[in-house]
UniProtKB/TrEMBL annotation:
Matching Gene3D superfamilies: Aspartate Aminotransferase, domain 1, Type I PLP-dependent aspartate aminotransferase-like (Major domain)
Annotated signal sequence range: none
Protein's name according to its UniProt entry: Aminotransferase class V-fold PLP-dependent enzyme
GO molecular function, one term: transaminase activity
């Protein structure tokens, strides 16, 4: 499916340049959600199909990040899945994070301070150089939330491997527009309500086979069992063989939506989406006299920028003292031009 054809799947009543806050679902996803809510409202069916949709979403997420479905865990939020990792970090471990990192990728590790876990923040550009033999884990976002900068992932991973450190990434602002290979990392975690265009309350995490034996399934319930439907009242714990042993019960409605939204993304193709999104971001930047970038997210500093964009019916966000705009499949050249004209 090409971008022009795909854009017919959306009907948006504003200039929505705020996918970095939440994404807008395509028509098939919205229809699937509406049908599920109607079934719930009228007691017209059992939740089996909703669970099947969540499993379909897991498979689609795996395809988007180049991983096997059995290596994908199902959670609710980035911080919840990060918390599973953090609870398993050894006492006294050193964890490296970038300065200004989104707190969902930082607080779970800081919450382990009573066990002597040390969290050190350094500038993103210096993260690779800060890795040493005392580093147990490096955590960073592939795409920074505040301004859209792409992390120097190659250098960070190479440094971590040289020193025997592990790498966990927050891919919430990346998966859906940026080609990603999760298997490069020990863990990759992504919430689905932004670029994957689902409701809040669903997240997926790639947990490598080498990392999983180090983790404790502290949130295990029936969803984490080898036989979920047969484990509602179990007195013995037999967990799933793969990453599903770290599952929590699915958010049915988010799963129903995510399955359809991710199917659209896969049909278009992530490289095509990246070119479209980055092209629009650079069109916006060029109109403001700025050099091109490599991200679907960009931020600028302009007097009363937020107020001026709102007056032009452009929806964006204000982060770290700057206005942040973000472009996705449904964004157009006219959207980029309208936003730029409001700020010139």
């Amino acid at each position: 499916m090409d971008i022009g054809t795909a854009q017919d799947l959306w009907k948006i009543d504003s200039v929505w340049l705020n996918t970095a806050q939440y994404g807008i679902p395509p028509r098939p996803a919205h229809e699937a959600l509406s049908d599920a809510v109607a079934t719930w409202r009228h007691g017209a069916g059992l939740p089996g199909p909703w669970g099947e949709a969540a499993e379909s979403a897991r498979r689609s997420f795996a395809a988007l990040v180049g991983a096997a479905p059995e290596d994908i865990a199902q959670g609710a939020t980035t911080s919840q899945l990060m918390g599973t990792l953090a609870a398993s970090v050894p006492d006294g471990a050193r964890v490296l994070v970038p300065e200004g990192e989104f707190t969902s990728a930082v607080f779970p590790w800081m919450a382990q301070a009573d066990r002597g876990v040390r969290v050190q923040a350094v500038p993103l550009a210096e993260l690779a150089g800060a890795v040493d033999g005392d580093t147990w884990l490096v955590v960073f976002s592939l795409v920074q939330s505040a301004g859209g900068e792409l992390a120097p992932a190659d250098a960070i991973v190479a440094a971590a491997r040289r020193h025997g450190a592990r790498v966990a990434v927050d891919a919430t602002q990346a998966v859906g527009w940026l080609p990603v290979d999760a298997t490069r990392y020990d863990a990759l975690i992504c919430s689905c309500y932004k670029w994957l265009m689902a409701p809040r309350g669903l997240a997926y995490g790639y947990l490598s086979p080498a990392l999983r034996p180090l983790l404790r399934p502290g949130s295990a319930g029936p969803a984490a069992a080898r036989d979920p439907l047969g484990s509602f009242y179990a007195s013995e714990m037999t967990l799933a063989d793969g990453a599903a042993r770290f599952d929590i019960s699915p958010n049915w409605f988010a799963g129903v939506t995510a399955a359809r939204s991710m199917a659209v993304l896969l049909d278009i193709g992530v490289p095509r989406i990246r070119d479209h999104n980055v092209g629009l971001a650079n069109r916006f930047r060029a109109a403001l006299g700025l050099a091109p970038g490599d991200s679907a997210i960009t931020s600028v500093e302009a007097h009363n920028a937020g107020e001026r964009l709102r007056a032009a019916d452009v929806v964006a966000a204000e982060r770290a003292g700057r206005v942040r705009v973000s472009f996705h499949v449904y964004s157009t050249e006219e959207d980029a031009d309208r936003a730029a004209e409001a700020l010139i």
